[in-house]
Amino acid sequence: MKPQSRRAFMHATAACAGLAGMDMLAAAGEKAIQGFDETATSTRNDAVWEPVSDRKIRVGIVGYGVCRFGAAFSFQDHPNVEVAAVSDLFPDRCSELAKVCRCEKTYPSLEELVKDDSIEAVFVATDAPSHPRHCISVLEHGKHVASAVPAVFGSLEDADRLLEAVKKSGLKYMMFETSAFRNDCYAMRQVYRAGGFGQMIYTEGEYFHYTDTPIDSYKNWRLGAPPQWYPTHANAYYTCVTGGTFTHVSCLGMPSTAGRFQPGSNAYNNRFGTEVALYQTSEGGMARMVESRDIPGSHGEVGRVRGQKGSMFDMTYDGLVDISGVTLAKPPLPPNVEPGGHGGSHGYLCEEFVTAILQDRAPLVDIVTALNTTVPGIVAHQSALKDGERMEVPQYSL
Question: For the whole model, what pTM was predicted?
Answer without folding.
Answer: 0.91
